[in-house]
Amino acid sequence: MTFTLRIPGPGFFLGLVTILLACALPHSALAQQDNRLLRIAVYPHQGFTRVNLSFQSPPDYTLRALPGRVRLEVRGADSPSFKKLRSLNDKQLAGVTTSELRGVLSVSIPLRVADAGVQVVDCANPSVLSLDIGPGVKRAARVDIAPGRAPILSGTERFVRDFDADPGGVPFAPTDGKVLKGLLPEGEALLFQQGESLLYRDRAEEAINVFSMFTNKATAPKALACYRLGEALERLGRHQDALSYFRQGEGLWPQYLEQAPELLQPYSDALARTGNFPAARAMLLRLMNRYVGTPYQAELLNRLADLIERNGHKEAALAMYRSVVVYSAGSPAAGRARLKLADRELFTLSRDRYRELLAKYQAVYQEPGDPASRDEALFKMTLLLSLYASPKEALETVVTYDRRYPRGIFSTIIKKMREEILFPVYQETAAAGNDQGLVQLALDNREYLARCFGDPGFAERVSQAFEKSGATAKELELFGYLQQKNWAGGSAPFLVARMVDDAVALGNVPLAEATARDFLSRFPRDPHLGRVREQLGRLAFERGDLPGAAAQLAFLGGKGAKAQLPESEYYLGKALAAAKDHGGAVRSLSRFTTAAKRDDPFLPDGYFTLATALAAGKDYQRALAACQVGGSIASGEVSGQFLYKTGELQLQLGEVRQARASWDKAAGLGGAWGRLASEALNDLNWRMKIAGQLP
Fold first, then answer.
1. Organism's domain of life (predicted)?
2. pTM of the model
3. Alpha-carbon distance 661 to 667, whole Å?
4. For residue range 463-484, what is the model confidence (pLDDT) as tens digits?
């Protein structure tokens, strides 16, 4: 049932009595009132049909979804026959018929479809009952949210349902200073007022320490202290202890509740929270009677609605909220009431209709009113978009809220929502190949990437985006932050290894070496270990520490080892050659020259060093072959170097004519190697002349 009551200001207490009856006798409280169905309007939509029923006054109704039809029963009402609506040309509805029996108006709506649902839609006018009927509003067993948003729902639904927002009411009022001075010495009266100041500033625990000092005083001061202790304990959620002190205070000085009626508010809360609903309701009505005709009457009606809703009288509570919305429009109380009315749809509406609820929350937020209500409305707008909107729109909304209220009451749950919504945004951005967008996404949300790291390929994909975007320095900074986070622990070895690469690329040798050694100590068995050691070997080679380079790169000579950085075999080969380990140098440089690309700047020297190592091992034939291949890719003076070495090797093989030809060609190129070749050629000619071998 739904009740919506007209409560004009001058007769407010009469309205409260009516509400009390409605709560106590929900089936008959309003049956005495005359009501009339004035108009029926039918509006077809995609997937459902909306039926607006306009009554003379807010209806007291029961709605039933029966097999093949929807039936609405309105107590204390009648209607015209509406014969023209008995047969409708509508995809969802087969007509609308009305009948009246014993003061109950029955509106029957036969259905053309078998899987139709029905939903009541709140209207600004409480006298209009709006029904949406059709398959489009049939509620599934689960909440109809956007795909992939289940973690957001599971993380927020219970919190939102259990969130105990301030229902409003009478504000805190300190004890009259004249009363205190009449009961306590001046110093003690000031101390009592300090306790009340603490209570006003929500420092309830400190206030308890102050008020406890007065429990051994005379009857009246002790009673005041008991009332304030009850109020402080109620704020801390210690409801049973609070009730005990309230009762103790009332027993000592019952008349004081008439002097300070605002104490009835926390007193009624304590009664309600400890299960005594009738007494709590009676006490709250007693308080409301004191504030008839004041700005607090609507606030207290909200509070009563909150009280009875928590005790199972949901429809009566909704009626009170509607009354506050209609008859206290523009007030903070109306904003709170509109929030309550909107909340009933929060986890029930279908995906294609969330914008309607979004508009309701938006209206609460945009109107001047209670800051807490506006904050709550903005949070629920953000939540709606997180559950239903596109990932990018949802993320923008969450980020906006987080920036606006970084330490608000909803900040913790907003941060969790941001973590969850980042994941589908990341998936969309990566799938679109938007590397720059992915880089920016990671940089802007680095504190909220925990959910994204649940994807094992996330760190690698983001690193590729940084590399393609040329943002090496930014990657180094971001990964330095991320590798310290527990939630990125599974990707920490990759992150640290990439930091080593980035530091090397940027020429930051101290950072590269420090990071690499940190990796070795933290992840001694990680698959990225080889790459990190290769970087250390490179750094050692570049600063001239050839033994250090050989030590770091020695693992490449092991069975099954393969260099991740092509130049690593070159560095190792050069280091081994310098150490006179010609066999190791040949093996390493052979691997390098086989795997290197033709445009590798180290390739010519790799072939030359390989030829030199082979020659040192007296393998002149292979050395000559290496020289000839190296010479084919060399240019400029390096070509002269290969021709000179080729001549030497040819001479070792007894190929004198070929050696003379190689040196002759080298001499023609000029340069240092040309001069050496010319000298070698002259020496060869002189020796051959002496030996009588010249032609």
1. Bacteria
2. 0.71
3. 10
4. 999 999 999 999 999 999 999 9
Q: 2-11, 277-286, 642-651 — which is least confidently predicted?
A: 2-11
In angstroms, the CA 92 to CA 134 distance is: 6
Instruction: Count the Cβ atoms, other than its own, within 10 Å of residue 547.
Output: 11
Question: What is the rounded radius of gyration, in angstroms, for the C-alpha atoms of the chain?
Answer: 43
- Alpha-carbon gap, residue 657 to 664, rounded angstroms: 10
Q: Which residues on neighbouring strands pair with residue 49, listed in sequence order?
A: 44, 133
pLDDT tens-place string over residues 151-170: 888 888 888 887 877 788 89
Tokens of 201: 């500033």
| Strand (E) or helix (H) holding 134 | strand 128-134
Task: Show the tokens assigned to 51.
Answer: 């039926």
Partners of 425 in the β-ladder: none
Cβ atoms within 10 Å, residue 128? 18
CA distances from 300 to 268, 304, 455 (A): 12, 6, 51
Q: Is the Cβ–Cβ distance between 599 and 580 less than 8 Å?
A: no
Distances (CA, A) of 264 to 170, 281, 403, 429: 10, 11, 39, 57
CA atoms within 13 A on the CB side of 212: 8
pLDDT digits (tens, 9 = 90+) for 43-64: 998 889 999 999 998 887 778 8
Structure tokens at 139: 């509620």
